[in-house]
Specification:
Chain lengths: ~250, ~270
């Protein structure tokens, strides 16, 4: 039996959609503003080590919530997510920087957040700096960066400080044409590494079929189907065709 | 919960420490007088309050500069940490929306920065105490549990402020007003024990009430008694505030863990 990299057990995530409010504008209305929305309603599955698993589903089905729950951005209200001590990162999106600090310091901070030690980060620092193509800008505060430079640094950190589990939320390339090609190649190289477990959320079924071994279809916060990519994508496409047809009839178009 | 907090502290504390160091380095690099500001800031404010007390209110105290600098040291630490915590989740939304970090670790980063400045300020207080020929006694060791108390108290208040700050837009203004009131009632630039020990209001001792309802007033008063007058800690009030602080910390962390997955949807 193959080793499990990710185990998601009966995970429920509820958004208590309490909006921020102003005391001045709404005295006594605090309670009225609280309601709940169940984004994930009991999701369970396991991902074996080394697999590339795609996540598909229509908008609002809970795909990104699932990915962010696995990444730990949300803690589940019920159920558990076990990544068996493997380090994990959301690729290509970047971790988020402290704008007043330099690129170099942000590399350290991002690495520490991903679970690397200062020593490990120091060892990979030259590679990150080189891949990001930022030159002397690496020593300057991130607030002075252009959006392209920001994305390059973000991608380089997550790509070079690659973790055992990589989660990809749609964004597949960043920066100018040259860097986009370079980052796409780098990502492909990471995905194809047999030691990495990868989960990809995408609306592009073609990309999912090209890259993934298995696919999880999420529908209304539940796992509708989990199996080989071709079978699940085919079922999903059939469902979406029926869904669009029904939606068109209902709206009279 | 304790197990979870311990595991998270172990995992994320290197981040908070590194971020605090970077922030301090950034402060040094961004000003002309660099680290001198860490010394000048408390000294200059102490001079302002001494001037107001002596010249404007025509009041004298035996060890006024030492009294004021101890008050300012504790107050600045508490005030700055709580104020920054109100908006901390919003301030770090770029990070918290992309990777998990227990939100109180962001507060800890600010707490470390302000604790470093508090340590410098205590160093200045020691210099002034020596200049006023205040003899150090063995009771000085009582400063350690009292400083520990202000660390726990500040952290617990900051965690609560950070949690409610996510949902209440104008909490920053509310906290600012509360802290301003607290500043005047904490005896930052006057000695609560000296000035108010005999004062009564509706038959109640004002000095005693102040240190019973205002923990910052208690900590400032206690530190002055230890450092200037060489007295030991008053165990009853100390335990009273320690229990309240730990309870607030527990409640704050519990709230934060329960609601942190919805913060990102609000900020």
């Amino acid at each position: 039996m193959s080793e499990t990299a990710i185990e998601v057990k009966d995970v429920k995530v509820t958004y208590r959609s309490m909006k921020s409010f102003s005391i001045r504008k709404s005295p006594g209305k605090i309670r009225q503003r609280r309601d709940c929305y169940e984004a994930l309603r009991g999701v369970s599955f396991t991902v074996p080590k080394g697999k590339i698993v795609g996540i598909i589903g229509k908008n609002g089905s809970g795909k990104s919530t699932l990915l962010k729950t696995i990444a730990g951005v949300f803690s589940p209200d019920e159920g558990t997510v076990d990544t068996f001590g493997n380090r994990l990162s959301l690729l290509a999106i970047g971790i988020g920087f402290q704008a007043n600090l330099s690129g170099l310091e942000n590399i350290y901070l991002s690495g520490l957040l991903l679970g690397f030690t200062e020593k490990e980060i120091r060892r990979r620092l030259p590679e990150i700096a080189e891949f990001s193509e930022l030159g002397e800008f690496i020593y300057k505060p991130v607030q002075t960066y252009s959006s392209g430079m920001y994305s390059k640094l973000a991608f380089s950190i997550t790509a070079i400080l690659d973790t055992e589990i990589i989660l990809i939320d749609e964004v597949l390339s960043v920066g100018d044409i040259h860097f986009r090609e370079k980052s796409y190649e780098k990502m492909k190289e990471i995905i194809e590494d047999e030691d990495k477990t990868v989960m990809i959320v995408s609306h592009s079924n073609a990309s999912i079929l090209k890259l993934c071994d298995d696919v999880i279809w999420i529908h209304d916060g539940l796992v509708k189907e989990y199996g080989p990519a071709e079978k699940v994508v085919e079922d999903y496409e059939g469902f979406m065709r029926r869904y669009r047809k029904r939606h068109a009839i209902d709206s009279g178009t | 919960m304790l197990k979870k907090v311990t595991a998270h502290f172990k995992r994320y504390n290197p981040y908070s420490v590194y971020a605090a160091k970077s922030e301090l380095k950034g402060e040094v690099g961004a000003s002309y007088l660099t680290w001198m500001w860490w010394i000048l800031d408390p000294v200059l404010f102490m001079l302002v309050y001494v001037f107001i007390t002596v010249v404007v209110f025509r009041s004298q105290g035996e060890y006024l500069p030492v009294t004021v600098i101890i008050g300012l040291t504790v107050w600045n630490f508490f005030n700055k940490t709580v104020m920054v915590s109100v908006r901390i989740v919003n301030m770090f939304r770029g990070i918290v929306s992309k990777i998990y970090i227990p939100k109180y670790m962001l507060i800890l980063e600010k707490l470390y920065v302000n604790a470093f400045k508090m340590a410098i300020s205590f160093g200045i207080a020691a210099v002034f105490a020596a200049a006023y020929r205040i003899r150090p006694t063995a009771n000085l060791l009582w400063c350690i549990p009292v400083v520990l108390l202000i660390l726990i108290l500040t952290f617990s208040c900051s965690v609560l402020a950070a949690h409610f700050g996510v949902y209440v837009n104008d909490l920053y203004n509310v906290v600012q007003v509360i802290l301003r009131l607290m500043f005047y009632l904490s005896g930052v630039f006057y000695d609560v024990s000296d000035r108010l020990s005999q004062a009564t209001f509706l038959g109640v001792n004002v000095g005693r009430v102040m240190i019973t309802v205002n923990p910052v007033a208690y900590v400032i008063d206690e530190l002055r008694k230890i450092i200037i007058y060489g007295q030991p800690v008053r165990a009853d009030i100390y335990i009273y505030w320690l229990v309240i602080s730990l309870f607030l910390l527990f409640a704050g962390l519990k709230l934060m863990y329960r609601f942190e997955n919805s913060y990102i949807k609000v900020v």
